[in-house]
Amino acid sequence: MPTAAQLQAESFWQREQVTPELAECCDTIAAGLGIPRGDVGNKGDENHLKGHHRSQEWLLNSRFCTNRTYTVQAGLTAAQARHIAAVDIVPGDWGTTENRRRTAVITARVVTAMKAGELNEVLEAYGAAADLATVTGWNNREDRPASANDSHLDHVHLGIDRRKLRDRAFLQRLASIVMGDDMSAKAESEVHALWQGTYFGGNSCGRKVPFQGTSSNALVAKADYTVQLLETILTAVKGEADTAAILARIDQRAAELRAGLVADILAALPPDRRASPAELEAALERALTGGAA
């Protein structure tokens, strides 16, 4: 890997530019998220030897470039070829759960907009998924999900069409989407509630199921539990389990249900005399409907 001094000695490094419009976009994002301007970056360091954090001119000419085709676009003007085309956002303290949660929220906003055709100018986006342990993203070039290395759990990376870095209207729209200005407080709350219920459960998520040595009512836990049950059933159907034992358990459970039903009927009948046909019918109705009128 080259040193910073070696990189900076090349004229192609010195010629790279962050356009005023992209700088303004980053100023807006930093102010809107309440984070230092230095946590919204563009020009890459010695660890960035390919991609949107480098100008196309640098990619095609620097002796240190490691990939001369990735993010290279045809038909650029000489000025466009000098433009840095990336935004990196660290919304909190690197490595903390809160930073990853914020990263996941921003990533979800941007990816949703890309899928909806509202950010066609953003060619790639990476960041933390809702589980805070997986990197997720979207590739607009190929219209498919994408991922990257684990550093993106702690920052959002946006790679931008090199032809759009002087387009102030687009870049301000991008800033608005990153900040969530297009989403009401109610919608933000609903998205957070869905995320919480999916991965951690809550009062509105119903009964708990066994999950990873404990119990949980999170939606992922219920999905995992359902898959386990289906696997058990499929194993039995294939003859790889004790089918007789499974059938015996079904018979046992049916007997338990019948006994419970009889007990409910007896409890609903008058204890001190023989029930009339109408009373017997009413007791049966209550037992079958669980006591509903």
Short précis:
It contains 10 helices and 8 strands. The protein has 293 residues and is of the alpha+beta class.
**Main beta sheet, described?**
6 strands, antiparallel
Give the strand order, joined by hyphens, for the main sheet: 1-2-6-3-4-5
Radius of gyration from the CA trace? 30 Å
**Quick one: overall form?**
elongated
Structural class: alpha+beta
Structure summary, number of beta strands: 8
> Please, what is the average pLDDT?
87
Distance between the termini: 78 Å
Order of helices and strands: HHHEHEHEEEEHHEEHHH
What is the percent of helical residues? 40-55%
Beta fraction = 5-15%
Number of helical segments? 10
Which spans of ≥5 residues are poorly predicted at pLDDT below 50? none
Describe what you observe in this structure.
With 293 residues, the protein is α+β, with helices and mostly antiparallel strands. It has helices at 4-9, 11-15, 20-33, 56-61, 97-115, 168-179, 185-199, 219-237, 243-268, 277-289; strands at residues 40-41, 86-89, 122-128, 135-139, 144-145, 156-160, 209-211, 214-216. The strands form two sheets. Strands 1-2-6-3-4-5 form a six-stranded antiparallel sheet, with helices on one face. β3 and β4 (135-139) form a beta hairpin. α3 (20-33) runs parallel beside α6 and α5 (97-115) packs across α6. The N and C termini lie far apart (78 Å).
SSE map:
Elements (H helix, E strand, L loop, with lengths): L3 H6 L1 H5 L4 H14 L6 E2 L14 H6 L24 E4 L7 H19 L6 E7 L6 E5 L4 E2 L10 E5 L7 H12 L5 H15 L9 E3 L2 E3 L2 H19 L5 H26 L8 H13 L4
Antiparallel strand pairs: 1-2, 2-6, 3-4, 3-6, 4-5, 7-8
